[in-house]
Amino acid sequence: QVQLVESGGGLVQAGGSLRLSCAASGSIVSSNFNTMGWYRQAPGKQRELVATITSGGNTNYADYADSVKGRFAISRDNAKNTVYLQMNSLKPEDTAIYYCYFWKFRAYWGQGTQVTVSS
Known about the structure:
mainly beta; 60% strand; 4-stranded antiparallel beta sheet; 119 residues
C-alpha cells in the first residue's frame, strides 16, 4: 500500500504564498510511471483537481487547473518520492482542504491539510 504524509498548510493573507509537501512511502512507490499531485475541497463543493505531475522515466509531465495556472507550481523529487506545491498570489477562493494524491494501479489519498486565505 501507499502512505502519504502532507505538510505545509496554514493561514495566509491574500496575495501571500504557501508551500505544500507530500511524501509517499510504501511497497509500490517508485519514481517511475506514477502520478502525484493535489486536489482540494472547499466547504459545500466537490473535490477538484489542483495540479498533478506524472513521472515518465526521465521526464515529468505537469497538469494544472485553469484557476491556478500562473500562480501555482508543482514539482517532485523522485529520489524522495515527494511532491511539492508552491502556491503564490493566493486568493480567498483558494481556501480549502488540500489532499495529496498518488496514483499507481489505483488512487491513494492523504488525510488533507487546511489552507485558509484571508481577505
